[in-house]
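Q: What would this chain look like folded?
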Amino acid sequence: MDSSISQPNPLKNHRHKATTATNNNDDYQVTDHDLTNMIGRDLNFMKETMTEIQKFVDHMNVQVNQACEKFEELKTRGSDTNELDQLKMSVKKLKSQIPSKLKIHYDDDSKPHRKPWFDGSINSSSGNYQVDVNKAGNLHSLYNQPKCDHTPALADIQVSFHSLPVEVKYFLDFFRIFPEMATIKKRFVIYWWIGETFPFPARLANDILDELTAKGFIEPIYKNCGLVVDSYRMSPYVRSDITIELQGHDFDYFPDIRFACWERCIVNVDAAIIDGRHEFIFKSGTDVKVVYLGRWQNSVTHHIEVPDIKILNALKNMKRLRFLSLRGISLITELPQFISQLTDLKILDLKACHNLEVVPDWIGLLEKLTHLDISDCYLLDHMPKGLGALSNLKVLKGFIIGDSKDKNSCTINDLTKLPWLQKLSISTSMKEFPTDLQLHHLQRLKSLQKLKISWSGCILRGKTNDSPKQAQLFSKKTTLTRSFIEQRDPKLPLLLELPSSLQKLELEGFPEIDTPDWLWSGNLKNLKKLYIRGGLLCNLDNIVATTVEMLQLKYLSNLEMPWKDIMMLFPNLIYLEKVECPGLNSFPCDQNGVWMRKDNGIDEKCSGRSYFERISTSRLAN
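A: My prediction, written as structure tokens:
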């Protein structure tokens, strides 16, 4: 995405055409100059890419022609098995270099064992392996290096595996549901753990993941070169060995419809369309605890749709369901009524259901719900009052504060009834958010540890025309609007600030040029992470957050600060990441825009850190 593109307004972009800057001073659009630069860069990129593609094609043609000549020679003069095996391996290697989307599938290729599924996170040449399905319909790994099971590394894996507790082995079995080398989000793994009703606290999932990483069973994947463990994957060789060790614990895999059923868990492995073919799976039993129909793949372009919402009614008998994901599924305009009867449900994931128009008020009937994600549902314009009845809710993502005057809309004041709320993300079209009253209600969320605020109508990335002046005028207008719409209530406390329990704060598209006064207070004594992405902010001069250890600054075209001021504001800083902040070019960051403090035992470059150093620091990033 080009730096001059502004963030769309999620409340309006599906209903109205975007207005230009000349028609509406509140909306900032890219200039002709910016568009010219963007188009030019894209065209140059495509030209350079096509040159590299042509080199690849020419190289492949030479190798394929040589293989064809060798094949004709062997057919003409005859050959022994050894020569054919060598040629077969050469052809197989050549075939593996062809991008999967360009492959022409013959009849044999349509068979399940010829089509391993990846999420695009790895290179096809990263391992020599293929996927096969045994007669029972279970997925297994077959390698073309039969001696791999006898390497010292795998011998260590086998010894370590037998020493693992049963519940940890169960954890490893979970990774086998997915294609080899698939990248699995940490969030998904944690949610699955919660949904499976283990007799162990959910917090142990982090400890188990750390243990499995340290022993080499799974590989952690970090965001950029940072400290945050975002995902995991299991190497093909470890997966093969685990499959052998876990014989008798196989899951049922249905290759024709791309679904896996395992223990009390149903996962959409690779089905793009969920329709009547899947109905028999959904009726597989009443003891199912986890149904993951949505997108687990990292790519946001991975498409899944439900042509007829009635197909989901087949889930209505799963009264013990604890985790339901419809993430990223298109054509869902409303939630089926039967979900209100799933009273054991703890996690409901509706993220990126772009056609969802309303969250019904009966959501309040799900009294055991602890995690609700309704972010990136752009047709929603308000929240149901029933959210205030979810007394066990710990995580709420995608809470909308819009212009709705509906008295049945949920407000931040209603959220103060949720005593366990620890993580909250807010999307708002109000540029004066938070008002004094809203800030007072936020202050009452005593358990809140993570807060994200996204001002959806403001700039996320890039510059505007004469941006400092325009930003100043915009900020002045916002301040005047705030004063006009709300006179200070004398009943409110004199000091209005964010809750002191906050450990992480994210501000996205912040609409003013100066640090907000609610960050001037010194009450944020537990704040460890501060992420600021996009907007008009010009400085951080008045901020009081001396305990911050991780600072992320992205797409802040107007921000200008010397490095020494950053060090004074954040004396405990150990990690900083900046992206497209031209006013911060003097910062001592590496080529990835990352700086790490040298005196905390962590090297500045990620490549220099050992597994154990990265594992020990991943606690900070949880």
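Residues 3 and 311 are 42 Å apart (CA to CA).
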